[in-house]
From TrEMBL:
This is Alanine--glyoxylate aminotransferase 2, mitochondrial. Pfam families: Aminotran_3. SUPFAM superfamilies: PLP-dependent transferases. GO terms for cellular component: mitochondrion. Belongs to the class-III pyridoxal-phosphate-dependent aminotransferase family. It comes from Daphnia magna.
Length: 466
């Protein structure tokens, strides 16, 4: 099986980097939050964020099947499924974001968002986070610091890199410092005569190992970008549609509304679809847009069914509650395992930083990898993320239960105990105080009443669906 992958792919091809390359899993089927291999094993899937409402959810499968039997054209004709889906999408978006482009992948969405931003501002320069990832199209490789770092040409002049707002100790101090750093980058670009047109970022930076900026960070930085004539794009390919629990969008938790929103992954529960949403004014700057498959009836039927499941099964509330339990349980392990440097997250987007010890926080990549395999032995599937691949990331389907969370916490405890009996990381310093713990206030998921539909409206939506 692996031989075929290597034969028809290349080592640099991300597709070839299968989970558990040393003892790969051949998956035969999947259901809810479980995947099943050819040996009859059942694994708890903590990584498939695209199986947002659960693998092969019957409502989504039925909607796709019914649509395929009825109408399965490409774009260009009018159809009811599209209008019904748009109506549902509009219900969960801020009023200002009123124009939708349906596309086929997260990369296509972020690329189009970038194009819109550049056309509207008539500027080419882009500000991004350090360790960012926005997709695999050339335009995005240029602006994804995770990607361009690996290329011989490195960073291009039109890209301005903002240090990650990685909260460690004191949120107030961190916040001021991070906003200052962002300001310096934006000011410098202006002073050099190449002002930033577009600031594109994840709001909770999943690609960098689940980095959670301080609560007022985006209010300040969006204002900085806009006041010098730029626009802000939120890349919610990973975080959108309720992954962070409680709300549909990560930006809601920060009291901001982006000028352009890009999302994907979860939107089709694994079916390739994504979207860009923006204001009428910005959309007017794009003279023409055409996508053969974007917005086809099958995608719309599936996208609509996914939204129905999120709402009917109250998955965002469940993600919030189960995620909090999982986060606290994993944080509880820090007192026992000094190689857990930090555990952070929101809803069902959680990252555990594996380090040689606290407070030094030197990344322990091999150790993290060993933990990964020890979890696999216990039939729990996680992945590593971040620049040093030492952050164990968990983005399970939103139907993840409290019982699943308990199992994961127990499995982590066993895996760290076993890994540290034969570890290859530096000796742990005697001081094991929890310095790396980023304590994000629980009110961070609060809403900005002025800019968003607000809790009352959303609650009504839930009641209407009941
Ligand atoms: N943006 C972010 C934040 C992502 O995580 C990804 C995919 N991992 C993309 C964009 C690109 O999405 P896709 O792989 O669907 O093209």
């Amino acid at each position: 099986m692996m031989q075929a992958r290597h034969q028809f792919s290349t080592p640099s091809d991300n597709w070839c980097q299968v989970h558990f390359a040393d003892s790969e899993i051949k998956v035969l089927r999947a259901s809810k939050q479980y995947i099943y291999d050819d040996l009859g094993n059942e694994f708890l899937d903590c990584v498939s964020s695209s199986a947002h409402v659960g693998h092969c959810h019957p409502h989504v499968v039925a909607a796709g099947h019914a649509q395929m039997l009825k109408l399965w054209t490409t774009q260009g004709f009018l159809n009811d499924t599209y209008s019904q889906y748009m109506k549902k999408l509009m219900d969960i978006l801020p009023e200002s974001l009123s124009v939708v482009y349906l596309v086929n992948s997260g990369s296509e969405a972020t690329d189009l968002a970038l194009r819109l931003g550049r056309l509207y501002t008539k500027r080419h320069d882009v500000a991004v986070f350090e360790s960012s990832y926005h997709g695999n199209i050339s335009s995005l490789v240029d602006i994804s610091s995770k990607s361009f770092k690996r290329l011989p040409q490195g960073k291009k002049d039109f890209v301005h890199v903002i240090p990650l707002p990685r909260t460690r100790n004191n949120i107030e101090n961190d916040q001021a410092e991070f906003c200052n750093e962002a300001q310096k980058v934006i000011q410098k670009a202006s002073q050099n005569g190449t002002p930033v047109g577009v600031f594109i970022s994840e709001i909770v930076v999943a690609a960098a190992g689940v980095v959670i900026p301080p609560p007022n960070y985006f209010k300040t930085v969006y204002q900085m970008v806009r006041s010098q004539g730029g626009i802000c794009i939120a890349d919610e390919v990973q975080t959108g549609l309720g992954r962070l629990g409680g709300d549909f969008w990560a930006f809601q938790g920060y009291g901001v509304v982006p000028d352009i929103l890009a999302f994907g992954k979860s939107q089709g529960n694994g079916f390739p679809m994504a979207a860009v949403v923006t204001t009428r004014e910005i959309a007017d700057s794009l003279p023409e847009y055409m996508s053969t498959y974007g917005g086809n009836p099958l995608a719309c039927a599936i996208g609509k069914a996914v939204l129905e499941v999120i709402i009917n099964e109250k998955l965002m509330y469940s993600a919030k509650m189960v995620g909090k339990f999982l986060l606290e349980g994993l944080r509880g392990l820090m007192s026992k395992h000094p190689t857990i440097g930090d555990v952070r997250g929101m809803g069902l987007c959680i990252g555990m930083e594996v380090v040689c010890g606290r407070p030094d926080m030197k990344p322990a990549t091999n150790f993290a990898n060993r933990v990964l395999y020890l979890l696999k032995e216990q039939k729990v599937i996680v992945a590593t993320q971040g620049e040093e691949r030492n952050v164990i990331a968990m983005t399970p389907p939103l139907c993840f239960t409290l019982e699943n969370a308990r199992r994961v916490i127990g499995a982590f405890d066993k895996a760290f105990t076993k890994a540290s009996q034969n570890d290859d990381v530096a000796p742990v310093p005697p001081n094991t105080s929890i310095l790396g713990l980023a304590s994000i206030p629980s009110n961070i998921l609060g809403e900005n009443e002025e800019e968003m539909p607000g809790p009352a409206k959303r609650q009504r939506q839930y009641e209407e669906m009941d």
